[in-house]
Design goal:
The chain is built from 4 helices and 5 strands, in the order ββββαβααα. The chain has about 180 residues and is an alpha+beta fold. It has a domain of about 70 residues: 2-Layer Sandwich (S16 Ribosomal Protein, Chain: A). It has a 5-stranded mixed β-sheet. A hairpin with a 6-residue loop joins strand 3 and strand 4. It is elongated. The N and C termini lie far apart (about 115 Å).
């Protein structure tokens, strides 16, 4: 049986998320699968990946072939690097402790990069919110000035009308 590591689509139109599954290459995309090893949601920033690392590594070592998208996900999560390092241990290039040390160094760097990205996105979001708030305050000030002008004009017109009424009434009282 030729096994593949591939994505199984879920969700609705315009909002897809995926399960990462091990399946027979002849099975339909959303059909029968051997094992579910994770989930991938590209709709959030950064994309959410929930992966059972040990099972993914097991299946890669067993010979399951990932699709292109899954290969990039596994590479991003470090499964392919770990396989590469374990192959180096098998060949005698270095020992298991060195492989673990290299993998942990890579993992720490990756976590720092992801955290930096998350912080940058959060900073941009708060900056945009501040900018929108400042623009809204400016618009509200402009509207308040317009309303004040209209009220002042209405008050002046009312005062003029009252003065005219008083002027009209004054001669009428003097004549009487």
């Amino acid at each position: 049986m030729a096994t593949k590591i591939r994505l199984q689509r879920h969700g609705h139109k315009g909002y897809a998320y995926y399960h990462i599954v091990i399946a027979d290459s002849r099975a339909p995309r959303d059909g029968k699968f051997v094992e579910r090893i994770g989930a991938y949601n590209p709709n959030v920033n950064p994309a959410m990946i929930d992966l059972n690392f040990d099972r993914a590594l097991y299946w890669i070592q067993t010979g399951a072939q990932p699709t292109d998208t899954v290969r990039s996900i596994l590479s991003r999560e470090g499964v392919l690097l770990k396989k590469h390092l374990l192959d180096g241990v098998k060949k005698g290039a270095f020992d298991n402790a060195e492989a673990e040390k290299r993998f942990e160094a890579w993992k720490n760097e990756k976590v720092a990069t992801i955290q930096k990205t998350k912080d940058q996105v959060a900073a941009e979001k708060s900056e945009n919110a501040k900018k929108r708030l400042a623009e809204e305050v400016e618009k509200n000030k402009a509207k308040a000035e317009e309303v004040a002008k209209k009220k002042a004009e209405a008050a002046v017109q009312a005062a003029e009308a009252e003065a005219e009424n008083a002027a009209e009434e004054a001669p009428a009282t003097e004549e009487a």
